[in-house]
Amino acid sequence: MFQEWRGCRGGYPFVLKHRKFTLHLPSGITSAEAVAHNKTGERLDRLELGLGVRFVGKACLALMRVGFEYAEGFDLAEWKSVCDRRLALRDRLRGTQG
């Protein structure tokens, strides 16, 4: 599941201490660097994260060509279903029906 930190969605590492989540980055990495890293990953993966996920450009077109029902994007509440469908698509494209 995506973690949200100060309005930024992404895979940020957290520690739960005294009933409070605290960002826990590797030593030497600032929060600004972590956000920049995630933004670069989004751009390279042709994703836009906001209230949901939107595939853009070639990623959207490629997913549409193979009939992925979430090719245009999805709400984060649909994350589990999208993951299951993405794995099924991967297996179909690999020729292995998991």
What would you note in describing this structure?
The protein is of the alpha+beta class and 98 residues long. The protein folds into 2 domains: 1-44, no CATH class; 47-98, no CATH class. The protein is built from 3 helices and 7 strands. The protein has helices at residues 31-44, 57-65, 79-94, and strands at residues 3-5, 8-10, 14-17, 20-23, 47-49, 52-55, 74-75. A 3-stranded antiparallel beta sheet has the order 5-6-7. The chain has a two-stranded antiparallel sheet with strand order 1-2. Strands 3-4 form a two-stranded antiparallel ribbon. The radius of gyration is 16 Å and the shape is elongated. The chain starts with a strand and ends with a helix. The relative contact order is 0.11. The mean pLDDT is 82.
Strand order of the largest sheet: 5-6-7
Number of separate helices: 3
Q: Helicity range of the residues?
A: 25-40%
What coarse outline follows from CA principal-axis ratios? elongated
Terminal CA distance reads 22 Å
Question: How many structural domains in the coordinates?
Answer: 2
Radius of gyration: 16 Å
Mean pLDDT: 82
SSE sequence, one letter per element: EEEEHEEHEH
For the biggest sheet, the summary is: 3 strands, antiparallel
Oligomer: single chain
Q: Provide the structure class.
A: alpha+beta
The total count of strands amounts to 7
Range of strand content: 15-25%
Instruction: List low-confidence stretches.
Output: none
In a few lines, what is going on in this structure?
The protein is an alpha+beta fold. It has two domains: 1-44, no CATH class; 47-98, no CATH class. The chain has three helices and seven strands.
